[in-house]
């Protein structure tokens, strides 16, 4: 495992991604969905005690909208914003029931949504498109599992697996969409395409707003966040450091070592991509190009970037799924558990330096987000039951 202290962290230079009125707008939009319910913030007291910490809180996103991952928060808000922009209305006039109405559909006509995904984002887009009665086309990178394809096809999307990695598939989708007049709902930005990804990031804020409410005044000292393109981590980090600006938590970003573009960017002092195949079990984090909006936030807010091998998340999945007596169990998938896996090994002598750098001790209150459940149940069982993460 490799890690790097972010010498360039300057909180003063951080521009919060959302102001108070944006935060309210996003949360109200999500609350208008009939499926909306806060996901649980689980307190793992026994684990905290075992690891010599004060508290561990885990936000369990496996229960989000029945979709087993947090990603639908971004896809749904971005589609809501995109459609309200097309209609020339404010999103506050278009709650879920209005967006689903025949009146809105007849004004907008037959739209086709398109996206690239390693699983969860595409599932969110497909789900939202189906709820609103539109067609959806989804491309997935080489190596995507059949279960993850099925999870998306379940919502009547047209799903294909390409021969390329995630970033090349994103480019292919954008080309196809521009040829065919599809609406691209992508969770990463590139030159000339920043509005939708920024809406997607803002959509994730509901999760952080809920967590802050559920913490009932406790201010976390540390927030550990996993990153793929970094859209999720940057918005959550941004909210936590700006909400608690007098006492900001330390931010730890964790990536798979095969796709550690933020770790490398921190080392280089500028955006650095990972190219080629990214064979990691953390499918949702297998992205080699940082979202530039996300990088601008994370370079100012992050304390330490960690590049973690697959066994770290396999360990996190087992720790959460097989808790100490008295703690609740959380089913967490490969991209959901890496932060727990990391925290769980930091009490070992081998990682003493990192623990000390992060000032993790008996006063620490750590927030972790389990961003997905067992989105591929077969892989989940193989890792948790058979202890096998290498043959995937
Ligand atoms: C379960 C899960 N967690 C975390 C992430 C990381 O999000 P981002 O790509 O915005 O960094 C993803 C992305 O797909 C995901 O599916």
Automatic annotation (TrEMBL):
SUPFAM superfamilies: Tryptophan synthase beta subunit-like PLP-dependent enzymes. Residues 35-369 form the Tryptophan synthase beta chain-like PALP domain. Its cofactor is pyridoxal 5'-phosphate. Coiled coil: none annotated. The keyword Ribosomal protein does not apply. Keywords: Lyase, Pyridoxal phosphate. GO terms for biological process: alpha-amino acid metabolic process. InterPro entries: DiNH2opropionate_NH3_lyase, DiNH2propionate_NH3-lyase_sub, TrpB-like_PALP, TrpB-like_PALP_sf. It comes from the Bacteria. Gene3D superfamilies: 3.40.50.1100. One of its GO terms (molecular function) is diaminopropionate ammonia-lyase activity. Pfam families: PALP (PF00291). This is Diaminopropionate ammonia-lyase. It comes from Clostridium carboxidivorans P7. The lineage of its organism: Bacteria, Bacillati, Bacillota, Clostridia, Eubacteriales.
């Amino acid at each position: 495992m490799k890690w790097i202290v972010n010498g360039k962290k300057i909180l003063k230079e951080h521009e919060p991604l959302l102001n108070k009125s944006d935060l309210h707008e996003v949360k109200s939009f999500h609350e208008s969905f009939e499926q909306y319910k806060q996901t649980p913030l689980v307190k793992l007291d026994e684990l905290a005690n075992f690891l010599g910490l004060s508290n561990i809180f885990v936000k369990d996103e496996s229960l989000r909208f029945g979709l087993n991952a947090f990603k639908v928060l971004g896809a749904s808000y971005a589609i809501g914003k995109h459609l309200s922009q097309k209609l020339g209305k404010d999103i506050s006039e278009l709650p879920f029931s209005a967006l689903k109405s025949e009146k809105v559909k007849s004004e907008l006509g037959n739209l086709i949504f398109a996206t690239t995904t390693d699983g969860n984002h595409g599932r969110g887009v497909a789900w939202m498109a189906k709820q609103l009665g539109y067609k959806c086309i989804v491309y997935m990178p080489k190596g995507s599992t059949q279960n993850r394809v099925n999870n998306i096809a379940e919502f009547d999307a047209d799903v294909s697996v390409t021969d390329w990695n995630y970033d090349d598939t994103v480019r292919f989708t954008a080309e196809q969409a521009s040829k065919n007049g599809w609406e691209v709902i992508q969770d990463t930005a590139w030159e000339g395409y920043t509005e939708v990804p920024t809406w997607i990031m803002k959509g994730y804020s509901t999760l952080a707003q809920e967590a802050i409410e559920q913490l009932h005044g406790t201010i976390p000292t540390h927030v550990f966040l996993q990153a793929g393109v970094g859209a999720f981590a940057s918005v959550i980090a941004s909210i936590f450091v700006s909400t608690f600006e007098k006492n900001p938590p330390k931010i730890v970003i964790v990536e798979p070592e095969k796709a550690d573009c933020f770790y490398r960017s921190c080392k280089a002092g500028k955006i650095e991509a990972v190219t080629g195949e990214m064979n990691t079990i953390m499918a949702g984090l297998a992205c080699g190009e940082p979202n530039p909006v996300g990088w601008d936030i994370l370079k100012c807010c992050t304390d330490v970037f960690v590049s973690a091998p697959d066994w770290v998340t396999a360990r996190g999945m087992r720790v959460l799924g097989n808790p100490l007596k008295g703690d609740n169990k959380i089913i967490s998938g490969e991209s959901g558990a890496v932060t727990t896996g990391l925290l769980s090994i930091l009490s070992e002598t081998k990682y003493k330096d990192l623990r000390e750098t992060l000032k993790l001790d008996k006063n620490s209150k750590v927030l972790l987000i389990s961003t997905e459940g067992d989105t591929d149940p077969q892989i989940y069982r193989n890792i948790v039951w058979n202890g096998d993460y290498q043959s995937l």
